[in-house]
């Protein structure tokens, strides 16, 4: 809903046409060990690496099957379906 509001304002206030292009990812997992662990693992297939607002790595997967595949190939990789804010993270 909010994206449509931004698009409406851009076209009506600034004359700028925009379009929304969705990505095919449905599952997000945070890398518990951070960037260092992700670098040790190396290239991961069927994933898209992004970062959250606190610069932590997040892996995007097309489906749960891709998550299971990566976890099977890299058991040392610890992934979390949720991320705590830095002020509430465990020590």
Automatic annotation (TrEMBL):
What protein does this entry describe?
A: Peptide chain release factor 3 C-terminal domain-containing protein
Signal peptide positions are none
List, alphabetically, the Gene3D superfamilies matched.
Peptide chain release factor 3, domain III
Q: Which organism is it from?
A: Trichormus variabilis SAG 1403-4b
Q: Name one GO cellular component term.
A: cytosol
Q: Where in the cell is it found?
A: Cytoplasm
Q: Name one GO molecular function term.
A: GTPase activity
* Domain Peptide chain release factor 3 C-terminal residues, every copy: 1-70
Arranged from A to Z, the UniProt key words for this protein are: Protein biosynthesis
Chief subcellular location equals cytoplasm
